[in-house]
Task: structure prediction
Amino acid sequence: MHKIIFFTVIMFGFAVQSYAMDWQRLHDQADHLSLEDAQEKALENPQSAQEQYVLGLVCLNLHQDQQADAIFNKLLMDNPDLKEAKWGKAEVLRRRHDSFLAENLLNEVIKLDPQFSPALISLAYIKYFQMNYKASVKLALKVIEQGRNGSDLSNYVRAYAMYAGAKGMLAHYGGLFSKGIDGLAVKPNLEKALKLQPKSAAVLFGLGSFYLLAPAIAGGDKAKAEVFLNQAIEADPLFADAYVRLGQLAKINGNQQECDFFLQKALEIDPGNELAQDIISRRCKFICVNSLN
Result:
């Protein structure tokens, strides 16, 4: 039924009227809309680029990336320079692990609007998985420095989570100085993000990863890790990365069967998941259990 409604929205979406979008408001709005409500609004206003864009955002939130892609493609057909739709297309490409095309599009968006936080955060994710943690930190910091009024809430919160995660990786690969400076930035920034958005799957995942991967002397706590990772999955059942970390926790606890189950679950959701592939290949670029101190 949802697909029928979706394609009806696309069919009647020709000649979309496009003008400057209040993208911060639209992102915040999408975070509180059900798919049914977003589809209804898009059907009621088929010529509104704003309503179509919000529907695309809701689809992204629900991991319905194919549907989101169709919406953003339609918006780009009507207005090839619409930065919001370019970002949406790039975000779909990023989720498909097509980093090259996604990065090119994101750079176009950032050239159009250097303060467009969704593009800065999407690019920060790409840089993270390219192991360019300094670039990831820099991009996340740009969003943080814009303040809450310069971004939608979710991307502002993701900026703190990404900043913390990239700092953690710098600490992991750095020397004693980096472990002291970068490592100490991880938990406080995640806690700031948690206060802003307590049910953010990205933040709950970040805290779970911190407690899982940090040594006990630096605050590591496997019991807390399990709590936060399960909360991340409760907030977003399709958050593949959280299943990977739960798999690592199961391995630490000596349960290889459960570890394999969680890894398989992650790959069912996202066959190209970087964390799962990293563990399976034993490259361990993003910290495997056997590389923990």
Remarks:
- The chain has 17 helices and no strands.
- Confidence is low (pLDDT under 50) at residues 10-16.
- Residues 1-89 form one domain.
